Amino acid sequence: MSIPLFLAQAQPAPGFDPSFFIMMGLLFVVFYFFIIRPQRKREDTRRAMINAVQKGDRIVTVGGIHATVLKVEETSILAEVDQNVKLRFEKNAVASVGPKEGA
Question: Tell me: the pLDDT tens digits for 41-95?
Fold first, then answer.
């Protein structure tokens, strides 16, 4: 008795098939160059911007608050929002840094 042809072709071929590992490697390379690497670059740029904040810089927070930096500490920033209105922000809350006041 013989096996029908469509059943014989459905069985996996014996042996090692490297094409699966090649495809997984190519998929990882694509993910790295299109997702991981650009995200890491943006984060490095943002971290450098936050570390470069100095007294007198104009900042905008992630909440949309515009302020002038009065004091920079290790993890926070004291900023003046309006006359005699001072707020303390975490450095990670800074979305953008503009030119110094009066520049």
Answer: 999 999 999 999 999 999 999 999 999 999 999 999 999 999 999 999 999 999 9
For the record, the structure tokens of 42 come out as 């943006």
pTM for this predicted structure: 0.67
Q: Which residues, listed in sequence order, are joined to residue 60 by a DSSP beta bridge?
A: 66, 96
Report the first-to-last Cα separation within the chain, whole angstroms. 92
Name the class of domain 54-103. mainly beta
How far, in Å, CA of 73 to CA of 54, rounded?
Answer: 10
Read off the amino acid at residue 103.
Answer: A
Instruction: Report the alpha-carbon distance of residue 21 to residue 12 in Å, rounded.
Output: 17
Beta pairing, strands 57-61 & 66-72: antiparallel
